[in-house]
Amino acid sequence: METPINLYQNTQSHLNKYSSIVFDSYPPQMGICNGELISQISNPDSPLDIEEFRRQGHMIIDFLADYYQNIEKYPVRSQVDPGYLKSRLADSAPYHPESIETILNDVEKDILPGITHWQSPTHFALFPCSMSIPGFLGEVLSTGFGTVGFNWMSSPAATELENVVMDWFGKMLNLPSSFLFSGGGGGVLQGTTCEAMVATLTAARDQMLRKIGKANIGKLVVYASDQTHFSVQKAAQISGINSNNFRVIQTTKSTNFGLSSDSLHSAINADIDAGLVPLFLCATVGTTVATAVDPLRSICGLAKQHEIWVHVDAAYAGSACICPEFQHFLDGIDGANSFSLNAHKWFFTTLDCCCLWVQDPNALIKALSTKPDYLKNQATDSNRVVDYKDWQIALSRRFRALKLWLVLRSYGIVNLQKFIRNHVKMAKHFEGLIAKNNNFEVVIPRNFSVVCFRLSPFALTGNQKIMSSEEDLNEINRKLLESINSSGRVYMTHGMIGGVYTIRFAVGASLTDYRHVELAWKTIQEHADTLLNDLCV
Length: 537
Ligand code: PLP
Prior knowledge:
single chain; Aspartate Aminotransferase, domain 2; 2 domains; four-stranded antiparallel sheet; alpha/beta; Aspartate Aminotransferase, domain 1; globular; seven-stranded mixed sheet; binds pyridoxal-5'-phosphate; about 10% strand
């Protein structure tokens, strides 16, 4: 199988070649020619001594390459007990310096045991946090440049590259042009979806309050489903929404746990009758537990009638929509005000990298901009540039666009689609294995690369083991999952779907291959057999 990670090969010669390209291409009048300046500023007492930087940098890359080479040897879920680290480390920071060799030794000895190995090929927990060579190296490059590109002037390339990659990515997803800079909208890289949610909810709040008056903030209502990620609730708390006005609309199996527009309609009407003001709806494409999809076209249509801001949260599943066969999940997105996905989940771009698009950047800017005198500059005054500090909560910001750019260019759309399809195929394969075994059942049809399953009622009653209520079954599945995770071979997590304790098998780690899916299936069956045998005794 082709994977996004190729283990380390000859880092030394590669980097030497790269550095000579960079420095040789500088104009000689800048004095950075053929490494001359480097030798001038090399200073062992400096926090940025160049030769030490090179030496230690190579060492860390080697360390990580070895880590990936050996990653299957570690228990996927960390097996340490709370507080394990304090007793291993000194009480206070060292007064005298220690060498990188000593420190890396301690990373291996003390830190690695406390790491849950998200990049392990048998990490099937939560959602993936998919790593790749360009994602990692882009991160290194951006950290290496150490820019703080809060406005255009503070690093023009950081802003302009972000403008470009957000339009590229938007086109790949087939978003309406109104979400792109080229069509009057625009995109911004936030750290996480939680931040994107606060930014958009604040924009929606202020837009509405400009219309109905600030005194009416207590009347604003936010809507979500019982499957929506808690980030919208957190955003509502932060942005001053009355906690009684956060509506959680129940979903059912009949809609595969997607939000029903009829239920939403009833909730909106009840609020209007009560004199409240519907404000914001978070719809999800790929909910956190069940990966359910809310029907965007109908709920956006409804929201539009009431001037409700719709944010579409596709934190995990949005990435799949670069494949035409998944784009139907975004049908109706033109009716949404904002849309976000986490490239650090399933787009081979390291944490953190949440991509947020809005149709009306001014709504965001009006809510989030400030204009201190000390940041005044001609570019801002010209109104010809984007100042991203006005699109987010924080001032300072990382050069995240660089890593996304590296990922897009290094793989091209064709390979990114291939990686995603491969994960989906492996999930489908796993789903097939579950479906063939009476002791297990798929709890909800799979949409993407997550399979929701459990030990079935038949596993208990069919074998005349015990009578089972739903609670019994939930408890046994809880035990099964804990037993599997304690083995360290595989890591999966759970969720409650309609009162059913569900084990989630999320494919998406970059190193995962079919043999890891098979290993997981074998491990699951072994632990289930032991558990069921114990029940018989
Ligand atoms: N939305 C959904 C659907 C999620 O599944 C998650 C996390 O898994 C989030 C939002 C939160 O993402 P973040 O950690 O980037 O805030």
